[in-house]
Amino acid sequence: MTETVELRVTSKDWQSHRPTWCPGCGDFGVLSATRKALVNTQWQPKDTVIVSGIGCSSNFPHFVGGYGIHTLHGRSQPVAQGIKLSNPDLNVIVAGGDGDGLAIGMGGFLHAARRNMDITYLIMDNQVYGLTVNQASPTSTMDRKTRSTPYGNIEHPISPVQLAISAGATFVARTFSKEGKQFESIMQAALEHKGFAFIDALSPCVTFNKVNTYDWFKERVYDLNAPDSDHDTSDKIAALTKADEDFSGQIPIGIFYQTQKPTYEELDPTIQKFGNVITRGALKIDPETRNKILADFR
Amino acid sequence: MLDQISIRLSGQNGDGIFSSGDTLAKILTRSGLKVHGARSYQSIIRGGHVSYSIRANTGDVRAPADYIDVMVAIRPDSFIADVMPMMKAGGKVLYDSKGFRIKDPEVPEGVTLIDIPAMQMARDIDSSIKILYNTVFVGAVVAMYGLELEVHETMLKGFFQRKGDKVVQINLEAARAGYSWVEENTSKVEHSVVFDRSKDGIYIGGNETLALGMLNGGLQSYSWYPMTPATPVGSFLATYGPLSGCIVKQMEDEINVSNYAVGAAFAGARSACGTSGGGFALMSEAIGFASIIEAPVVFIEVARGGPSTGLPTKTEQGDLNQMLGASQGDFPRAIIAQEGIADGFYLGQESLNIAEKYQMPVIIASDLYMGEHFETLDGLDFDRIPIERGKLITEDIADDELPYLRYKLTDDGISPRVIPGVANGMHDAGSDEHDEDGALVSDKRAGFPEAIEVRIQQMKKRMKKMDGLLKELPPPEVWGPGPDEANLLVVSWGSSRDTVREALTQAEADGVKGASLNIKYILPFHGKEVGEILRAYESAGVKILGVEANYTGQMMRYIRGETGFEIKDKYLRYEGEYILPREVRGAIEQFMNGGLQQ
Ligand SMILES: Cc1ncc(C[n+]2csc(CCOP(=O)(O)OP(=O)(O)O)c2C)c(N)n1
Ligand code: SF4
After folding, report:
1. Is A38:A50 a contact under the CB 8 Å cutoff?
2. Ligand 2 pocket member A206 (CB < 6 A)
3. Domain A11-295 is classified in which CATH homologous superfamily?
4. Does the beta carbon of A129 sit less than 6 angstroms from any atom of ligand 2?
5. Ligand 1 centroid vs B406 CA: distance in angstroms?
6. Which residue in B has a C-alpha nearest to residue A71's C-alpha?
């Protein structure tokens, strides 16, 4: 980790493998907006780790530059925390699907939010399980027919935005993969936010979700942070209320809530004493500490 | 005249049995003795029945005492659970008939009852401290063995100083009261054990030595979720980790504990996590994950009695099958059993080295007895095992060395490992099968000849690491007489080592010439060497007995699978209590004289 002359990072630096998604998949829009936001931050790809779970959307790290770790289904959050705490100098981004983050990974998501580590989490929300070919997900709307709900979905969808706010995330937004400009600026704000930033990215599955399509969203989304909007992003209750507008009517997109709290890594006793333990190195217990520990066993 | 010290404190939760036992064990340690301490308890916080057994002598003491010479029996239940099964003629019981309403307790023949009004004495000193009577009892035991009161006083001063001078003073008075009462009212224990206050050891448990060893092995990340009996590893590291550069993270469940550990390892931290059997079941998927992305993680499994929630506070070696079977598919990993208290200290360091050198998960197999009993150690060598990180790249990769391939095919199967932050090392680590560069072969490419080839190469590359590791691990060694002199070979594993060896030493008096083979390195396994040992003893006419703490003889089945040698006779224990040397000796006696009855 020697210092290199840092050249200006361009879009090319964030390129990687060609995406394997179906043509037209919402995740393409997420990818290009994310790359642009990354260029805006001027982060070094070598200092950035993209963490994902399993799903179509979780193939994300393979399509973006930087270090990537494509973990298990639902386990991106704990892996990301292990990375971030060990080396707080890394930029850590977590990406995955609504099944990955809200079904199997729900516990990890909520605990990640409450810890407020400086991590950005992006759910590519297509309201369906894509990779396992069309089953209901926790954000599938009522009555939706899928291969696991052939007679119609009879479970109520959950609101990832509300969950993130109540669990303690300090930046919570929703955006839409076709709103490139807004996506880019929200993504950049999330990346630059110090603390746990969550984005619910509406990202249609063109293959399996024939209800919540691009056109369906285009008719409904409106900008929560438009100049004439009276939404106060520092008002937690207002944010929860806004997020309560379900998908049967208009759909607000934009930043719901933002606040500042100390991050976990700022409070951790080991990091407070030693800083980055990776750059410190793996060392034996120094003789003074050794004696201090052993004294407790005499 | 007794040639060793053997004490048990027995009472219920809330009597302060554990802290009194610790105090007594440390008094003995500070008096120059080697102590073995073991506790018995239940999964409740108040009431129930608990005990703390102490055995001490001038030489190493590595197994629990067969019989108790001095029993502190605080509660009526103490007579049923401890006095009756653990005492014989000559033993002495300290109890307080009035204070704890114990009338005409039943004791084995020849056991002396000493009725000491500990409760009243404590109340006379200070009636506000409810459990002061335990200090009175400890003071009495100190007197019974002729230990120096001053050592007890120093202990109490150190222990209670943070609670203020008054509490220290009260406890000192209580200790002195118990001590004087014995001096004035009863005869002491006659023994030949010599105290030497110039000697100074540490009194420490198996979980703690393992944790201390890992910390000295440069541990930088430990994640956990509380579960008896692995909890002390986590609490030790939560306390001392922040003093030595280790981040300790309590997670929300063991699934996330283990995946956190993988993330930390990926970032370049020396990483470990720990749990008991139930939590380990939840870690299963992450073990295979660590293996396929070649992330070095140590997984600690301190077993309790199974199945399911099982016997949370009792011991068993019942999780071997689970450890061998954890996670789907074939993948390289090591399984190593902790064999002793001091062993834990070195194993903690060794396991991290193996994990990093071979870039694979290492599972440490321990159990409640191993982790939660204590011994006196003098001198741990903090410099014996160097920190070895294997093929780790932490400096930027030069442009002319590109392309960097994270999963590069090499002769030993180990590819140079880069950590995030290093320029030119960027790659994707994937839980899917991947090529040398980390690119997936499980999606678009799967099924094409090129992808099939990649799969075969990567499987072979990973599994090859097992061959290298096996060569590095020390082959098994037999303790005791060779095939020509022995008449018995006992095969055991992990935590059973010292109890079995003590039983074999005792059984010499019965004409047994016993050897012991205790398995430590379970995976990769020295199948050839173990097979040769077993056949050598068998063909010399030596009888072979398996001893382990589970119902089905999991290790003996494993050995059969790996060597083709069947150990037919087994002494198996699964009721959860730690095994006493005399019990193994009894089994040996039966076995040598016809057959085991189980
Ligand atoms: C432990 C485990 N259970 C189930 C699966 C199968 N699986 C793979 S992806 C997936 C769901 C994908 O849905 P989502 O996370 O919404 O992502 P999408 O494919 O829609 O982008 C499931 C159930 C798995 N890989 N691992
Ligand atoms: S199945 Fe749906 S989510 Fe998956 S790649 Fe295709 S369009 Fe995208």
Report:
1. no
2. yes
3. Thiamin diphosphate (ThDP)-binding fold, Pyr/PP domains (3.40.50.970)
4. no
5. 26
6. B431
In three-state secondary structure terms, B109 is coil
Going along chain B from its start, the domains and CATH numbers come out as 5-196 (3.40.920.10), 205-377 (3.40.50.970), 392-472 (no CATH), 488-592 (3.40.50.920)
Rounded to whole angstroms, what are the CA distances from B63 to B56, B136, B340, B375, B584? Answer: 10, 28, 10, 9, 12
- Report d(CA B325, CA B331) in Å as an integer: 11
d(CA B436, CA B449): 16
Minimal Cβ distance to A20: which of B252, B285, B444: B444
Closest ligand by atom to A201 CA: 1
Q: How far is B357 from chain A (nearest CA, A)?
A: 14
Tell which one of A22, A31, A73 to mutate to probe ligand 1, the residue whose CB is within 8 A of the most ligand atoms. Answer: A73
CA distance A262 to chain B (A): 17
Q: How far apart are CA B596 and CA B577, in angstroms?
A: 20
CB A70 within 8 A of CB A59: yes
Decide: B81 and B62 in contact? Cβ < 8 Å.
no
Q: How many residues does chain B have?
A: 598
Q: What is the ipTM of this complex?
A: 0.97
Tokens at residue A8, please? 């200006």
Atom of ligand 1 nearest to the CA of A129: 13
**End-to-end alpha carbon distance in chain A:** 42
Nearest to B356 by CA among B258, B271, B439: B271
Beta-carbon count within 10 A of B569 CB: 17
Task: Please enumerate in sequence order all residues whose Cβ is within 8 A of that of A221, keeping only pairs 6 or more positions apart, or say none.
Answer: A176, A179, A202, A250, A251, A252, A253
- Residue A157 tokens read as 């969808």
**For each of chain B's 598 residues, which pLDDT tens digit applies?**
999 999 999 999 999 999 999 999 999 999 999 999 999 988 777 778 999 999 999 999 999 999 999 999 999 999 999 999 999 999 999 999 999 999 999 999 999 999 999 999 999 999 999 999 999 999 999 999 999 999 999 999 999 999 999 999 999 999 999 999 999 999 999 999 999 999 889 999 999 999 999 999 999 999 999 999 999 999 999 999 999 999 999 999 999 999 999 999 999 999 999 999 999 999 999 999 999 999 999 999 999 999 999 999 999 999 999 999 999 999 999 999 999 999 999 999 999 999 999 999 999 999 999 999 999 998 899 999 999 999 999 999 999 999 999 999 999 999 999 999 999 999 999 999 999 999 998 877 888 999 999 999 999 999 999 999 999 999 999 999 999 999 999 999 999 999 999 999 999 999 999 999 999 999 999 999 999 999 999 999 999 999 999 999 999 999 999 999 999 999 999 999 999 999 999 999 999 998 887 6
Inter-residue contact A109 to A101 (CB < 8 Å): yes
Ligand nearest to the CA of A125: 1
Q: Do residues A29 and A122 lie in contact, with contact meaning Cβ atoms separated by under 8 Å? A: no
Nearest CA-CA partner of B361 in B482, B265, B458, B447: B265
Length of chain A: 298
Ligand nearest to the CA of A123: 1
Q: DSSP state, B307? A: S
d(CA B572, nearest CA chain A) in Å: 34
Is the CB of residue B3 less than 8 Å from the CB of residue B192? yes
Q: Which of residues 195-234 of B touch A (CB under 8 A)?
A: 200-204, 208, 212, 215-221, 223
Do B260 and A284 make contact, defined as CB atoms within 8 angstroms? Answer: no
Concatenated DSSP letters of B183-245: HHHSPPPPB-PPP-TT---EEEEHHHHHHHHHHHTT--EEEE---TTTHHHHHHHHHHGGGTT
Strand B47-57, strand B34-40: pairing: antiparallel
